Amino acid sequence: MKLQIKNKSGNAAGEIDVRPDVFAVPEKMSLVHQVTVAHLANKRQGTAKTKTRAEVSGGGAKPRPQKGSGGSRQGSIRSPLWVGGGRAFGPTPRSYRQNTPKKMRRIAILSVLSSKYRNGNLVVLDNLDIDSGKTKEMTSVLSSLNITKSVLVVTDIPNENVITASRNLNKVKTVPAHVINTLDLMNKTTILMTVEAVRKIEDLWGGVYTKELEEPEEGKSKPEGKSKPEGKSKPEGKSKSVEEIGLSSRNLNILLAADLMNLDDIIKMSKKELLDIRGFGEKSYIELCDKLKDAGFQYPEESFEGEG
After folding, report:
1. pTM metric for this prediction
2. Which terminus of the chain is less hemmed in, N or C, by CB atoms within 10 Å?
């Protein structure tokens, strides 16, 4: 596939061949959402702390007599009921960190990049040479490219002049290609990257998404591979991804973490192999079988009852 290249004046400067497994990956919104939530959770410090009634100072004696004062009974001024007392069920230091498999993070990045390209929000520049590092130079480039909303500027290596020219612009963020992440890509409307950055991204993440993106051309046979197990049938056409059959979030995340991205991989597995996956139990298997039946995938009867 090809991407159009522009220069800093906003004029066409040719085309560039790019890898479809980087810029033509199907949109996986559930995966993108999971990775984005993990990014936001990992940014939380988790250092909020309040004192309990055992940690505040004072309150050795009863504040008033047990009886005779006409007021309620109170045992200590450190009680949460008193001003200056401890707090009941207050926050304590904790970690909000979520560990996401590397392959899931990478596929989420490719999914967002491909989505930006399909929506016309990916701009490729032949070069982004800024001489003086003044803000007006970056403003001029963005104006020539008709970019008025937020933008993520991606270069192949950290460019000091680009960083200096962009740091006073509220809606502009600059990152080198090797540190782009799903959260930054989602937060910005437009992605502006140089040709060198495109090549760097292809070198880093090309080949991560291995699913066939196109049907074989007419007259060409499909590549030879493992024959389809007897008794298992599926509708003609492209294989569906696991996300399309409507599994619960828990079971979907377990299968994705086990690198089971599409249904072709799952229907070749026996019940015992599925139950060997950590966290995937009998109830998960029953739900998977029901969803596969609804999607038109038929297992032999012994696959549901006889295996185990």
Report:
1. 0.63
2. C
